[in-house]
C-alpha cells in the first residue's frame, strides 16, 4: 500500500531567509506495482530524491527509469507521476518550493494612427475576392482596436474627447466594412 507522509521541519533551525518559499518535505513509499496519480502543482516546484529502490517517473511528456540516488526536478504546472515497477520498495524524498505564478510580459502596444486606417481603406482594390475581403476587414478591425486602446490609455473613456474620437473611428471602420462588402458582392457577380 502506497504511503506518503509529510516531514515536519525543526522550527528552531528553519531559515527565515527563504522568504516563505519552502512548501514542505514528503516521504513517499511505493510497493511493487503502485504509482501516484498523474498530477501537477500550479505554484510549486518539486525535487525528488530516490532514497532506495527503482521505478519510473513521468515529468511532462518525458518518462524514464529512476534508481537509488537519482535527483529529479519537477517544474511548476507540470504533470508528473512516480511508479514502482520493480520487485523492491521504492522510497523517495520530495521537497517542494513555492514559486510565484509566471506573469506573461505585456507586449508593448503597437502605435497606430488614423492615417494608417485611412490608407488601409484606400488600398482596398475595386474587385475583391472573399479571402481578400475577410483579410481586409480583419486588418481594419485590428487597426481600429489598437486606436481604441491608445485613446483609452491616453484619455480614459470618461472624457467627451475620447468618446468623440472613438465614434469617428467606429464610423470609418463601419463605412469601410460596408464598402468592402459592396466590392465583394460586385466582384462575385462579375461586375
Quick recap:
By secondary structure, the protein is of the alpha+beta class. It has helices at residues 114-122, 130-155, 160-188, and strands at residues 3-7, 22-30, 44-52, 54-59, 62-67, 71-74, 80-83, 90-98. It folds into two domains: 3-98, Jelly Rolls (Sandwich), CATH 2.60.120; 114-188.
What spatial order of strands do you see in the largest sheet?
A: 1-2-8-3-6
**Largest beta-sheet details:** 5 strands, antiparallel
Structural class: alpha+beta
Order of helices and strands, N to C?
EEEEEEEEHHH
Quote the CATH topology of the largest domain: Jelly Rolls
Determine the number of helices (DSSP H or I, runs of at least 4 residues): 3
Number of spatially distinct domains: 2
Rounded mean pLDDT score? 83
Measure the end-to-end span.
Answer: 78 Å
**Low-confidence runs:** none
Q: What is the percentage of strand-forming residues?
A: 25-35%
The shape, in one word, is elongated
By CATH, the superfamily of the largest domain comes out as: Jelly Rolls
Q: In CATH's first tier, which class of the largest domain applies?
A: Mainly Beta
Kindly state the percentage of residues in helix: 25-40%
Which CATH architecture of the largest domain is right?
Answer: Sandwich
Amino acid at each position: 500500500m502506497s504511503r506518503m507522509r509529510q516531514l515536519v521541519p525543526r522550527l528552531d533551525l528553519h531559515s527565515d531567509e527563504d522568504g516563505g518559499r519552502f512548501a514542505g518535505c514528503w516521504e513517499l513509499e511505493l510497493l511493487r506495482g503502485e504509482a501516484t496519480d498523474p498530477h501537477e502543482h500550479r505554484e510549486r516546484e518539486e525535487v525528488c530524491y530516490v532514497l532506495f529502490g527503482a521505478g519510473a517517473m513521468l515529468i511532462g511528456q518525458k518518462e524514464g527509469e529512476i534508481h537509488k540516488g537519482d535527483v529529479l526536478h519537477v517544474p511548476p504546472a507540470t504533470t508528473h507521476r512516480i511508479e514502482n515497477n520493480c520487485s523492491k520498495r521504492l522510497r523517495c524524498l520530495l521537497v517542494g518550493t513555492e514559486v510565484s505564478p509566471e506573469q506573461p510580459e505585456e507586449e508593448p502596444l503597437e502605435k497606430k494612427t488614423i492615417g494608417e486606417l485611412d490608407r488601409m481603406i484606400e488600398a482596398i482594390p475595386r474587385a475583391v475576392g472573399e479571402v481578400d475581403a475577410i483579410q481586409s476587414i480583419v486588418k481594419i478591425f485590428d487597426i481600429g482596436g489598437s486606436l481604441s486602446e491608445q485613446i483609452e490609455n491616453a484619455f480614459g473613456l470618461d472624457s467627451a474627447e475620447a468618446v468623440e474620437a472613438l465614434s469617428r473611428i467606429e464610423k470609418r471602420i463601419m463605412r469601410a466594412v460596408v464598402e468592402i462588402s459592396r466590392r465583394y458582392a460586385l466582384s462575385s457577380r462579375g461586375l
